[in-house]
Each structure stands twice: as structure tokens, then as C-alpha cells.
């Protein structure tokens, strides 16, 4: 089968491509050809033994979407997006990339005769806005409070409608906050959730800008790739008309993150966390969801970690070369 | 103040324009200028004593939206839409008019400096899809099962985001099924809800294609105009980020409709209803909502009828010239 990954240069896209290169398959199905696309040519999965094509392309440019679907990939993974902060700062760009880009892809698929690919759409918890119940259920209303969340919610509605019409066979994945993100600290408001673990595990100081009782929803990068692998080959019939789901994850407080770090890496790692309250970050994070009841995703076979310790051990295995 | 009505040739647009012509005001505010636009030039409210402009224009054509907002109307009522059946039959046209047309209007408003008009957006119960609880609450999820409902839900999300950003001050109105629609029978699946009352009131036979226990959500054309009048001048602060609401109405079964007809017009009117079951219509209507708990709309001042008898008496007053 043929798979095309749009947004393949991002963290999840890279890991997905590398996983496919490593296993030669997705969801148990052999992958013969893999096309990797991003606004910069993705330089990953070069050891893939099947046919591998990689190029730079922007979904929002005329003709690009049609080119992407011309060879009828069986599975299309659509990860390309402008992130939350940039979509808020540049409204036009956010709508152009996150809404028009997605729609261009779906319209291009509609234009190919006798074709109904599996389309995996990266959505976000940002489709939900406060006020929240303690635990957010699968039928919680779409109430985005950012332009990014609005665009992702509109994409979900499109995915549902195009699936209902039989133009494509969509699965929408609302990713938890991915933790521990590998690499350098970034400026995202959520960055500290990874930073307070990643930096100490690498012997460096990390800053904690919020209170220890802040709670949020997490999964590992490995779980994120796992969602896509499952979505690629799952039976979509049980999803009915509602194709988009919040993914399972681990609800944890900052205090629980820190205790998991202590269990895995000891007091000396925890001592590297420096508390430096930041009212701005605290107020942003206060509007984020804390916990979910992901019955639909669990019943249809999606899995994540069971504890924050497991999330940390996955980082040690996947990013620091420690054996399981 | 200046008001612009887009979709002014439709049933609700005409009645709204005529009401403004009659009272010279909306929501207690004097209307100095009224612009009426539709794909055919609206020929209504010709007795309006203020400045009245009427022309044919299509929001989906380049430059039209910018022209509509160039004179900075204080209130814009956006009623223009492709209806459900046509949006399902012609997918491109539905998305072009219902989604792109709405977006063009909002974008044009964003392009006018120092401008933040009240925008009243006609949404629909079609943003909701089965399975339903017995009574649908204000926080029921957006689960459209038609392209029309998808487009209206996407428009709601846009209205919320553009309002949150301070580009406009939106109010989204999800209309109940309007009953009794004046005029001739039409081919809409919902047509019989008006037909079984309107035709007998005019001494004609009507066909009832569904069972007597079918329940649905109704309001009169007068109530529909009333929602817009209220939305034009209401305080939107209590709405917060969620600008779209299901409007109050009357939940009634077909049997209750018929008993109301009997109370108002007697047995001879009821005898004109002929039962002719239609499995296709019955199955479409089976997927429709039956009852709503419209707390938000009621708390923010929207009103409708309190009984089906009242709905019938309004038809007699407004369409058959009977005095109250």
C-alpha cells in the first residue's frame, strides 16, 4: 500500500516516517511506497526500503493538493498546520493553512474518480474551550477559544461530511499534549510540561512557571505515532458519522510529573527544577483541559500510556538510547 | 442607524423588511437606512420612509461583500443560504454559498477599519444530528448529518471566532421550523407541518405523510422576525464566546397540531387532512430533533409562542387578515 504524509518534517511526522521505515509496515500492512511532504523537503526515513519520495510543497498553493493525490495513496496523513500561537498572531495565515489547506486536500480527493482513501486528520484539544467539567466526555461541545481551535473544529466538520458522503474515509485524532517532546526548549506556553522532565534528565536546570497542582492531559511521542498507525488500518464502521475523537492519555498534575521524575531519575534530577512563577503562562494554562473520558477511542482500539513514569521511560528509551 | 439584510427576498427577510418599514425601527432603535440584497432584487418594504436601497447581488462573487459593507451598516442580517436539499444535491454550490459566502462577508467586515457591526447569522437546527436526548440542551454537541448542517456549524464557529477577535459582534440564531409558512405547498420534507394547517384553514385538502406521534420544534414567522429584532439590539456581553443559540419554540406532536387546528377552526377543518403515509418522509423526519431546552436564549430575552394554538392564530392574523 501507499502512504502520503503531509507535514512530514514535524516531530510526529518524522517519527511516523521513521517507524514505517523501520517496520516496513503500518498497522500490520506492508508499505510499498511512502511520500513525505512538507513546506521544506522532509529529510527523514532515508533507510526506507520501499519506494520513497520526499519533496517540498505547500497545500495552499494551486495544484499542489491535486498533485498529492494523483497517484492515489491508500492512506493520507494530514499533519500540516500552523500552530496555535502563530494562528492567533496571523489570522489570515492560520485560516489559509489550517482551513483552506485542509479543504484543498479534501476537494482534490473528491476530484479523483473511484477513490476513497483513509484520511487521518490531526486535530487538537483546542477544539474544546472552558468552562470544562472535571472530566471531559466524548460528546462535549465544540467550543474553541482560539482561531487555531476554530480551524481545527471546522476541519473536523469537513472530515465528517466528506466521510459521510463516501468521498474519503476519515479518522480525526485529537492529540493530547505530547510529552516528553525531544529537542531544545521552545517558547510554547506548554513547553515547560516537557522541559521540567527533559532538562533534568539531561542534567540541566529547568524552569517551572506554574503551581504544582496544575493538571493536564499527556501522551508520549510513541503513543502519538501509535494513534496514527492504528487509525491507518482500523475498522471505521463503528465510528459512524462522528469521525473525530479525543485520544487516550494520562491526566497528571505537575506534582505527579515531578514524583514520576523522582521515581525514575532520583532526587538530584528533581533538584534541577527551579520554581519561577509566570502569571501569563499560569493564566493561559488555566484555560486548558485537565482530564478526559475517552471511551470512544478506547473502545475502537486506541491506546496510550498508563502512567507518567511510563511516559518518562519511553523518553529514556526512544531519545536517550536506554534499553527498556 | 443603518441595516443591511442579505437574503431579503426570502420569507423571513421579506417579513423583517416589512416590519421595519411599518415601525420605522428595530429593537426600539430608529432605522434611517435599509439596504435589501438578494440574488434577485428584493421588491419589498417599498413604503419604508427612510432611505431604502434594494439590489441584486451574489455574496460569492468577487467584490460583492466589500460593496455590502462599504457604507458601514450598523446591523447586518445574513439570511442568504442554499437550503438543505439543494446543498445535499449540489455539494459545490452548498459550500460556495453557505460557507464561502459567509466567510466572504466576515472577511469584508475585517477589511473595514474602525468598524464592528452587529452581525445576525441565520443558523439551523441542522447543526444537530441524531442520536438525540428527549430534550436537547444548549451545550449539545455540533453533530450535523447533512452538508447544509455542516456548513451552518462552520459558519457558527467563524462567527464565534470573529466576534472573540472583536472584528464583529455576532449573534447566531438557530431557527425552529417555521410554521405556518404562508404561500403554496412546497416540496421540502418538512412542508406538511405547515400544509396540514394552512390548507385546511384555506378550505383545501392537505396530506399528512407521517404518524400522529411525530414531534418537532416550531415557531411562527412573526417569532422568527422577533428573534432578529431582539438580536439586533440586545446586550451581547452575556453571550461570552458562544454567540449561537437555539431559539425558543413550541414542541408539538402532529396530534397536538391537529387538536390546535380543531380548537381554532373546528372539525370541518380537521376533516380536510388526509392520511397518506410516506416512508421516505417518515424516515427523514425520524432523524429530526423533537424538543429543546433553550435556557440561554430565554435568559437573554428571546421569545416565541407558548402554544400551537397561538401559532395558528398568528397565521390567521398575519396572513388572513383576521383581527387578534
UniProtKB/TrEMBL annotation, chains A, B:
A GO MF label: oxidoreductase activity
UniProt entry keywords in alphabetical sequence: Carbohydrate metabolism, NADP
Domain named NAD-dependent epimerase/dehydratase: residues: 3-208
The keyword Transmembrane appears for this protein: no
Cited InterPro entries: DenD, Epimerase_deHydtase, NAD(P)-bd_dom_sf
Signal peptide positions (record): none
Keyword DNA damage tagged: no
This protein's name: NAD-dependent epimerase
